[in-house]
Automatic annotation (TrEMBL):
It comes from the Bacteria. This is Glycosyl hydrolase. Residues 44-372 form the Sialidase domain. It comes from Paracoccus litorisediminis. PANTHER family: BNR/ASP-BOX REPEAT FAMILY PROTEIN, BNR_ASP-BOX REPEAT FAMILY PROTEIN. GO terms for molecular function: hydrolase activity.
Length: 398
């Protein structure tokens, strides 16, 4: 599809694709839309949040969301949930607190300087007279956390009630531009309902980002990671309820230095949604994530000494849901949701060069249906619903 064709399809209307699948392009007035997150509200309504604007890193990037109410044949209008004219606001995460409150977390950074990022936490409310309307309160920045903290994974609860917010730290190098070379994983912990936070590091995690923990079994909680090195999805384990974590180790899933998400399904299996590609599968490369910003910055890229060499530009396709029955070490069953060139050597969403299918999210509903959202060519957020029993379509790719 061309950018114009994608824009014309961004109506939010659901349409069937075969007997067991329905799809929609979410509505948005923005020309770039990326980093979808799905969240189920208590009444069964589905929220999809993402960031949109003209170009990732630009100060017109802000958080948007849309609501799909139960039984509806179309998503509601795009709603702006943040609006800081001086910062690029990215990577929304929604959390339902134990007291019933809904919270929005997202990042806020100047230009492409992820090492200067702050996290904003704001209450999310729904209009009781109009179920399609959401709004975010003023909230606050989590300034007790160091600059450079980024979010992407969902918030979980520790057995003692503490809130666990997965963090990846975009670590700065004095006098040098951030490029991902020293990024590490951490968990922000709040023991007072989000009023204050501290940071616990994941050991030996250089390059492991976008931590995605899943519900534990038999006292073990796995968490899965995107990798700056574009080699493989990694996994680490907590054996103490999320208080501490082992060093990330590779799974058999490839990774292309693009986002992943993981859930524990009702049947006990772990599902990871990701791109089945890595640096070993393509020679496509780009210099950095923010090539197109064109801002005057004479600083050199960060020296990778003591860190890693990030790999950018590996194609972001296909999108696949991958199933594990051994706690997340191997994923023999894989269901391709959509394939394509995946070209991402440019972030531009207007000239048709970008073909990525990326940053997928997944959520299993109580009825066993699977809800998926992902970036479509940087122009739109695409939504896919698979009917209960969808996992029977997964096939072995080993």
């Amino acid at each position: 599809m061309t950018p114009a064709e994608i824009a014309a399809a961004m109506t939010g209307r659901l349409h069937p694709v075969g007997e067991d699948r329905s799809e929609a392009m979410l509505p948005s007035p923005m020309i770039q839309n990326h980093a979808a997150f799905l969240h189920l509200l208590p009444d069964g309504a589905l929220v999809c949040a993402w960031f949109g604007g003209t170009l990732e890193g630009k100060s017109d990037i802000s958080i948007h969301a849309s609501v799909l109410v139960p039984g509806a044949d179309s998503w509601g209008p795009a709603l702006r949930l943040s609006d800081d004219p001086a910062h690029s606001e990215q990577n929304p995460v929604i959390f339902a607190a134990p007291d019933g409150g809904q919270w929005l977390f997202h990042t806020s950074q100047p230009s492409g300087n992820q090492d200067e990022c702050r996290i904003r936490m704001a209450p999310l409310t729904r209009d009781p007279q109009d179920p399609l309307q959401l709004s975010a309160g003023t909230g606050r920045y989590l300034d007790e956390l160091p600059r450079g903290c980024f979010v992407r994974g969902r918030v979980t609860l520790r057995p003692d009630g503490a809130w666990l917010l997965p963090i990846f730290r975009c670590v700065s190098r004095p006098g040098q531009k951030w490029n991902g070379s020293h990024d590490t994983a951490s968990v922000a912990v709040s023991t007072d309902g989000g009023a204050s936070w501290r940071l616990d590091d994941v050991p030996d995690s250089i390059g492991s980002v976008h931590m995605s923990p899943v519900e534990g079994r038999e006292g073990i909680i796995p968490a899965f990671y995107r990798r700056r090195q574009a080699d493989a999805v990694h996994v680490s384990l907590s054996r103490d309820g999320g208080t501490s974590w082992s060093a990330p180790q590779p799974t058999d899933l490839p990774n292309n230095n693009s986002s992943i998400a993981a859930i524990r399904m009702a049947d006990g299996r772990i599902a990871v949604i990701c791109n089945l590609s890595s640096a070993a599968s393509s020679t496509d490369r780009r210099a950095s994530l923010y090539d197109e910003l064109g801002e005057d910055d004479a600083r050199p890229d960060a020296d990778p000494t003591g860190g890693c060499v990030p790999v950018w530009g590996v194609p972001r396709a296909p999108v696949a849901v991958c199933l594990s029955e051994d706690g997340g070490h191997t994923f023999p069953l894989r269901l391709v949701i959509e394939d394509g060139p995946g070209t991402c050597t440019s972030n531009d969403s207007t000239d048709g060069r970008n073909k990525e299918l990326s940053y997928p999210w997944l959520l299993e509903a109580p009825d066993g249906s699977l809800h998926i959202a992902y970036t479509y060519h940087r122009r739109a957020i695409k939504y896919v619903r698979l009917s209960p029993g969808w996992a029977q379509s997964a096939r072995s790719m080993t």
